[in-house]
Amino acid sequence: MSKKPKAAAAAGGEKPRGFRQSMAWLHTWAGLLVGWILFTVFALGTASYYRTTITNWMQPERLLPATTPVHGDPVTSTADSHVTRPMNQQAQLQVTTQATRWLTRHAAAATRWTIALPGSGVTNATVSWEGPDGYHSRILPGVKGLTPRQTEGGDFFYDFHFQLHYLPIGVARWIIGICAMFMLVAIISGIVTHRRIFVDFFTFRPRKGQRSWLDAHNVTGVLALPYHLMITYTGLATLMTMLMPWGLQERYAAQDGMLPFYSEAYDFRLAGMASGQAAPLPPIAPLLEHAMTRFGEHEAATIVIDNPGDAAAQIKVSRGSDARLSAAPQSITFDVHGKTVTTYDADNAVADTVGVMYGLHEARFASPGLRAVFFLSGLAGTLMVASGLIIWTNKQRQKRLSHGNRFHLGLWFVERLNLATIGGLPLAMAGFFYANRLIPALQAHRAALEIQAFFAVWAVAAMHAFLCRGRAGWIMQSVAGAMAFTLLPVIDRLTVGAWVMPGFDIALLAAAAVLGAMAWFLVKKSSGPDLDRMARANQTDRHEALSGPNATEGRRPASSALPHLPARSASESR
């Protein structure tokens, strides 16, 4: 009697999927289709938590001993000059005068000057200017008199993680936005799929093949689940005006397009037209000092001067966001006579909402301990995506092997993409660091050459992934990565002549240790059973079992165990 329902179900066709099964299917494909981009975004975004540290390491001149000190013009005192200011604010006042003098000499015809002030670990000012001949930027010598080498530094990783490279910015951000949507769907469907989500938090079974990969995927997903939800949602929120503009368009339709929104949320204003009447700029340092008084103990971040040298010039000083959760701007704008024109304090719900979304995503407010937590959570997300990609290929490969080891183009392509991305990206990052140390410091366009080196190494790793077969490719790229990161501190010492950042060198050695451990594990694993050989043996046994003298007895072949599970030894059985 109990067999009749099963027979009826078989006769009636395949049983429809339940809700959890449907969510499992959605979880798999939402993660797989964009998994390689998500891995890159997670890896480079996680590295961006220390982008200032990376930039400082890539500009060792910032940290070398002083040579010829740089003296700016004396800072004109104001009513606030009696205030004793921290050393970082004093440095900002000094480099402001230096930067203004440099721009006056070299960019007098520009329509806009921007001075990115030193602070939060950055010891040099960066000046940029816009004019008829385009956009230009330059890093100025610091108080030590050394001009840092031109490099994108950690900003390259940060920019790449949300707008890629070599693509139009709008297209690239759409790609990243769509991938982030897939990521959010994968996270939510994964939560629904896992009935034992709290048990998975504490469960990891090593040396169990596919089961170990699944445990690693679950642990890294559940351990930092609040972070994964937060970082994905806030990442989408930073692109909201592009991905979902309709609400904003409806809200501000009766006004001057989207400009009022950008003004409320980002303190964005169109620059006024030049009057055509020449007028000298007021001393900038006293204006910065006045703004510092308004900002309190917080640092200023940028000074933007529109129409320099014109009677319609305006000087806007903006506060940094490193010391607070919200990244909403705060600024004060002066006219050519040094009088206050406008102030912006982000005292509206729009600015608060946007500022908190940005602040949570970038974590500029984080203390060293909290930043480390963000970094480790980002690493967990990176491992979660990588393990998910590997789980899919292992499962599909086992399925194919159990049915005769038939070649499947899609599986072959995914396996190669996995190696090209998971194995190739660390090599590309190492290549980026090597280029920074090996390209001459005064080489023209060296920042672009460093980026080209990054993609060249990644392209070579990708070609190797498509030409090399199976586990050997993983071993070779892991060994290459371990060697590359191990030698980087040596190259650093030989090319710079000093250990400028020993902590960063230790981090490079830690990355080398991880890649070396991966290579050791793969080499050890390669001495075990070969999946291809086991699959062929299984096929032979099945054929003999079906066609031999024992076929009518229905005896199971001795080697019909799953091909991905090696036979237990006698000691394991006991």
UniProtKB/TrEMBL annotation:
Region (Disordered): 533-574
Biased composition (Basic and acidic residues): 533-545
Coiled-coil stretches noted in the UniProt entry, renumbered to this chain: none
Pfam families: PepSY_TM (PF03929)
Superkingdom in the source lineage: Bacteria
Transmembrane segments: 24-50, 171-192, 213-236, 372-392, 413-435, 447-467, 474-491, 503-523
Stored InterPro entries: PepSY-ass_TM
Keywords annotated in UniProt: Membrane, Transmembrane, Transmembrane helix
Protein's UniProt name: Peptidase
